[in-house]
Structure to design on (258 residues):
């Protein structure tokens, strides 16, 4: 399955390429001042006050990801990493340029979206499963595995509002990894739960890497970049400033803070 986001480009994507990004730009309109009523809005317009300014977040990114790569994306807060991920996931639409996704993509960006605190853990498992496209029969088959991985089965009939934030993330993560796709997009999800659960997550992603799963990881952990990634990209001020060996990119990132 090939999905194109943005301006159409008349080229054939190499079948070994999972994602192809060309000249990618993303701008946001930020309000500068509020108009208190119609009269003020008209007055502002007459003075040439737009009421917003353009914020350029991504500034012409060009890169591709091969099938089976474990790509790390690093950069300081506000560099544009999360915006890029949301464009890859189809949440945002680019202002200019194109993304070609060659296969099915599963984003692990905001775990637990769709959880209802007034429902029990059991009910939320089925609700979240439905949002991921699973039938009740499919959820029945994976139900016990979800709770076993999350290590929370004794709490399955309690309302979610009684769960700690860590418990909710563990349950959400355990549900999310049931979704199978050609490409996984991860935004700091290796940091979920306590140390023991993080190790379980690390083992899970290590197995994905071993089996050649295409993965994109956005993280501030250079240890994870060096441990898991086969290549890394560093974004600074909406531009790619490094692309290559994970250790070299990690060192360049750490040098930003010296």
């Amino acid at each position: 399955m090939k999905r194109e986001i943005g301006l159409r480009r008349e080229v054939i994507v190499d079948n070994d390429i999972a994602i192809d990004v060309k000249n990618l730009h993303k701008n946001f309109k930020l309000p500068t001042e509020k108009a208190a009523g119609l009269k003020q809005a008209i007055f502002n317009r007459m003075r040439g006050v737009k009421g917003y300014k353009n914020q350029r977040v991504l500034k012409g990114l060009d890169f591709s990801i091969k099938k089976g790569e474990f790509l790390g994306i690093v950069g300081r807060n506000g560099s544009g990493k999360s915006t890029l991920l949301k464009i890859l996931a189809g949440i945002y639409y680019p202002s200019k340029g194109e993304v070609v996704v060659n296969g099915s993509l599963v984003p692990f960006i905001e775990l637990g979206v769709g959880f209802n605190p007034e429902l029990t853990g059991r009910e939320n498992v089925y609700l979240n499963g439905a949002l991921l496209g699973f039938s009740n029969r499919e959820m029945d088959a994976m139900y016990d595995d979800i709770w076993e991985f999350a290590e929370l089965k004794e709490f399955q009939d309690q309302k979610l509002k009684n769960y700690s934030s860590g418990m909710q993330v563990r349950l959400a993560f355990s549900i999310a990894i049931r979704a199978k796709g050609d490409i996984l997009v991860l935004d700091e999800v290796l940091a979920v739960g306590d140390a023991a659960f993080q190790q379980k997550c690390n083992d899970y992603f290590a197995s994905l890497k071993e089996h050649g799963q295409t993965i994109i990881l956005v993280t501030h952990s250079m240890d994870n970049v060096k441990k898991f990634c086969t290549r890394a990209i560093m974004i600074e001020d909406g531009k790619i400033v490094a692309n290559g060996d994970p250790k070299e990119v990690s060192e360049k990132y750490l040098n930003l803070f010296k």
Notes: The first strand starts at residue 2 and ends at 6. The two ends are 44 Å apart (CA to CA). The CA atoms of residues 152 and 167 lie 8 Å apart. Confidence is low (pLDDT under 50) at residues 8-12.
